């Protein structure tokens, strides 16, 4: 069997990989630059910062909930490469709006009245962009790759995605906001030209009809997918994972500032370490499974993830913050006597999380006919986005009730137990 990395030399995979990598990089460069500016430059209390972070997450997720059914139908009905070109062109227009918001924020001009609304509008539009690209990046793989290459290809896409998240996250924390404004536009342009190189991926069957009624199509798609037991178990397992992810990602910026008393570069470091871990887990699980799509290691992986979340919680509760309202810079933070257990537990969360979720995504696209792959991924995205909205609302509700950020981590650990139970049921049903 060809090694996964060998796919990077093939045109049937490399342009898609690069296009997805650049899109993920741009998403996170823009989103992180926006969130860090608001958290560190506009608000001054943990509750407001957590609420804004939750609102931003919800705005980005909402299009997945509303438009995934349409995106899945289009991806199964039209050449997927053609959709990629259209979506990537739209990204250029979206990032021009987002760049305008970042420049206004940099200038301090009408920040709350104009800059933040423009930033949130661009974030919502990027959510739409990702909604239409999401089903394609997984559903196109069974068309362009051999069956024994799909798990490796999926792992590479996930690893590349999180490496891109790492790069975008780190960059947003260290460059000025005006440079970020230029960067998101340039990246969108490069992504458009990369997307034009993706080989054609015409619909497997020509008889797909498209229901343009958003609500009816979403209900029908989820109902038509979730009644199949193995798909139901896989989708619900993934959804619980992303509910946990939503809670963690909402907490990271305010936790870094208010619990660990660290500056925005450290908040970026958190997300960077998380991204590295997901990438490592994505590659490691492919090596363990030797290319076979299986949920064999999913229950154990998510249980290990729960253990690391609990360890992360204990480290946070014992952390010694900076005195006199100061914030640790990256150098002081890395010299803290508890930094190794802190970053180690965070890395453990991410590695085990990557090992849990990657085989489940590969399972979705290989356990159905190729003509239904995009719709299956779209149905998964609908349920995932609903679960992430629930996770965001839970985080916001707990913050409103005065539950500390570090204690909210225990909720994430508890949800891992449910994911492990579901993954075990999937393993017994299908392996």
Structural write-up:
The chain has 431 residues and is mostly helical. It is 79% helix and 0% strand. It has a single domain, classed as MFS general substrate transporter like domains (Growth Hormone, Chain: A, Up-down Bundle), CATH 1.20.1250.
Describe how the helices and strands are arranged:
Elements: H1 14-41, H2 46-77, H3 80-107, H4 111-139, H5 141-144, H6 150-174, H7 177-195, H8 214-226, H9 229-258, H10 264-289, H11 298-318, H12 330-334, H13 339-366, H14 373-400, H15 405-430
Helix pairs in contact: 1-2, 1-3, 1-4, 1-6, 1-7, 2-4, 2-8, 2-9, 2-14, 3-4, 3-7, 4-14, 6-10, 6-13, 8-14, 9-10, 9-13, 9-14, 9-15, 10-13, 11-13, 11-15, 13-14
InterPro entries: MFS, MFS_trans_sf
Membrane topology: Multi-pass membrane protein
Main location: membrane
What is the gist of this entry?
It comes from Sphingomonas colocasiae. Keywords: Cell membrane, Membrane, Transmembrane, Transmembrane helix, Transport. 79% of the residues lie in helices and 0% in strands.
If you compute it from the alpha carbons, what radius of gyration comes out, rounded to the nearest whole angstrom? 21 Å
State the end-to-end distance: 21 Å
What is the H/E order? HHHHHHHHHHHHHHH
CATH topology name, in short, is Growth Hormone, Chain: A
Tell me the structural class.
mainly alpha
Report the CATH architecture: Up-down Bundle
Poorly predicted runs: none
**Shape by Cα distribution:** globular
Under CATH at level 1, the class stands as Mainly Alpha
- How much beta, percentage-wise? under 5%
Q: What would the average pLDDT be, to the nearest integer?
A: 81
State the CATH superfamily name.
Answer: MFS general substrate transporter like domains
Number of strands: 0
Number of helices: 15
Fraction of residues in helix:
over 70%
Major sheet: none
Kindly give the count of domains.
Answer: 1
């Amino acid at each position: 069997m060809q090694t996964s990395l060998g796919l990077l030399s093939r045109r049937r995979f490399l342009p898609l990989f690069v296009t997805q990598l650049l899109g993920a990089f741009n998403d996170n460069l823009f989103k992180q630059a926006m969130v860090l500016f608001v958290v560190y430059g506009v608000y001054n209390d943990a509750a407001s910062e957590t609420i804004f972070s939750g609102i931003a997450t919800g705005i980005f997720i909402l299009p997945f909930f509303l438009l995934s059914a349409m995106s899945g139908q289009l991806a199964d009905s039209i050449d997927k490469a053609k959709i990629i070109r259209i979506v990537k062109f739209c990204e250029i227009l979206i990032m021009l709006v987002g760049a305008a918001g970042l420049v206004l924020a940099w200038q301090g001009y009408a920040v709350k009245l104009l800059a933040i609304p423009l930033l949130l509008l661009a974030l919502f539009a990027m959510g739409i962009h990702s909604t239409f690209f999401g089903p394609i990046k997984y559903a196109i793989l069974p068309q362009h790759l051999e069956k024994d290459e799909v798990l490796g290809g999926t792992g590479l896409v996930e690893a590349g995605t999180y490496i891109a998240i790492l790069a975008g996250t780190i960059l947003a924390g260290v460059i000025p906001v005006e440079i970020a404004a230029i960067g998101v536009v340039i990246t969108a342009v490069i992504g458009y030209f990369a997307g034009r190189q993706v080989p054609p991926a015409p619909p497997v069957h020509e008889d797909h009809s498209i229901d343009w009624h958003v609500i009816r199509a979403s209900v029908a798609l989820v109902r038509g997918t979730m009644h199949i037991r193995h798909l139901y178990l896989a989708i619900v397992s993934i959804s619980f994972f992303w509910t946990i992810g939503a809670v963690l990602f909402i907490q990271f910026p305010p936790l870094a500032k208010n619990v660990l008393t660290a500056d925005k570069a450290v908040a970026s470091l958190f997300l960077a370490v998380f991204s590295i871990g997901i990438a490592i887990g994505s590659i490691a699980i492919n090596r363990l499974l030797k290319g076979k799509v299986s949920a064999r290691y999913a229950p154990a992986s998510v249980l290990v993830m729960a253990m690391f979340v609990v360890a992360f919680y204990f480290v946070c509760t014992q952390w010694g913050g900076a005195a006199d309202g100061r914030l640790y810079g990256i150098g002081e933070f890395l010299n803290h006597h508890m930094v190794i257990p802190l970053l180690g537990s965070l890395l453990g969360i991410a590695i085990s999380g990557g090992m849990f979720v990657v085989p489940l995504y590969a399972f979705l696209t290989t356990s159905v006919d190729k003509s239904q792959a995009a719709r299956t991924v779209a149905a998964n995205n609908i349920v995932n986005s609903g679960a992430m909205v629930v996770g965001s609302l839970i985080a916001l509700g707990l913050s409103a009730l005065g539950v500390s950020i570090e204690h909210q981590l225990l909720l994430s650990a508890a949800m891992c137990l449910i994911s492990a139970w579901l993954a075990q049921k999937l393993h017994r049903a299908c392996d």
